[in-house]
Amino acid sequence: MPSHDTRNTLSITDNRTGRQYEVDVLDGDVIRAMDLRQIRVNDGDFGMMAYDPGFTNTAFTTSRITDVKGGKGILEYRGYPIEQLAEHSTFLEVCYLILNGELPTQAELDEFVHQVTYHTYVHENVTTILQGFRYNAHSMGMMISTVAALSTFYPEAKQIDDPDVRRAQIVRLLAKMPTLAAYTYRHHKGLPYVYPENNLSYTANFLNMLFRIGGREYQPPPALVRALDILFILHADHEQNCSTTAMRVIGSSRPDPYCAMAGAMAALYGPLHGGANEAVLRMLVEIGTTDNIPAFMESVRRGERRLMGFGHRVYKAYDPRATIIKKAADEVFEVTGRNPLLDIALELEKIALQEEYFVKRNLYPNVDFYSGLIYQALGFPVELFPVLFAIPRTVGWLAQWEEMVVDREQKIARPRQVFKGHPRRDYTPMEERG
Ligand code: CMC
Q1: Which of 6, 7, 349, 369 is 20–30 Å from 188 (CA)?
Q2: What are 303-346's pLDDT values in tens digits?
Q3: What is the pTM of this model?
Q4: Is residue 273 annotated as part of the catalytic site, yes or no?
Q5: Distance, CA 312 to ligand 1 centroid (Å)?
Q6: What angle do CA 331, 277, 130 make, to 5 degrees?
Q7: How many angstroms does the Cα of residue 216 sit away from the middle of ligand 1?
């Protein structure tokens, strides 16, 4: 006889009162947080809540887009393993998949690519906004501000319950992000902006807008265009990470997607999230030679530093994206020559995979550990690295935003707090204060 019964419920005994409660267990070992509210000592009490700083164990939404099985190092978009998509697909096909749930037919893909290609131009007034920034403004600050400003160019974007309006903004944002990113780069360099070329692919057009000089079209080796496409596929979505959660939280008060995405980009910018690729490169440059690695690792062990590009909230195994990037890096270096910082990165990884400090904490390389080395080899300046994360993540943010907008279970995001401040007291007149 099994010692348990067949009900999908959880029994809770409140030892403070001796009362028993039974709450439903939903699919995936989940209980509804609101079911805890009935647990109270006195009738007038607010009821029990869960305390979860950093949402480490809280499911904020259901989703059908991306599945990360962190313990096994698995990442799937709409059920398709990331390894297969990176090998066989293109970034825009993956965008279609993420947005629509299925791989497109050839006709569907052609139409989608056409739409994205023909929305790459930005209003000339946007370039005026960009010109107002200082010559050394960080690209992410420029991008965040300009994406928010796009909201004012498309006032109809507020009609978020209209599926056609939603899709029009999604296409616009996917199309315009590379243009904005390239313009921020040209701004730093003091170079004239290069308009999009509609005969080029998404990534080739981006590289052309960045690196073209004079009348000649920039023609990067196809292997580099493909490497960038793969990097974009790997960054397209990653379920409920910090910036996607920001997108959903901001979106839950129902502003237009430009404003919500500016917030998501701001969340991405931090060094613990999408700013990590920039931080990794700066760390490798600071270490400088393999001789300096032992001292650096000692400071990590002492808790004074973090090994940037290592560790992940969800992956407790090797990040599958890091494996693919490592392979792509080899292919890029065959064309561009080896990045000398690679030796430092490989040595750091070797040490970290053996050392107790990292093994005990399940710290493995994440997507950001090797991506910066490829970006550098492709000629991107370090300030552009987080932008190279933001461009492909646009599709993830927007797919998750749209999923949230149509999800009838979603409400405005408004968590609770455990108040630890001063209890009620009366205002003290100035002359009576100590
Ligand atoms: N170097 C050294 N120690 C680390 C690191 C690291 N990179 N990451 C975590 N730890 C330690 C941390 O000090 C803690 O140790 P202890 O238990 O002794 O206090 C333990 O590991 C658990 O860390 P945590 O900060 O509680 O873990 P978290 O899940 O809150 O943080 C993380 C995840 C990604 C923010 C963190 O691993 C980190 O800061 N990594 C470096 C930044 C980075 O590479 N970010 C990119 C993430 S992947 C791309 C993306 O999606 O953004």
Answers
A1: 369
A2: 999 999 999 999 988 899 999 998 888 889 999 888 889 899 99
A3: 0.93
A4: yes
A5: 6
A6: 105
A7: 45
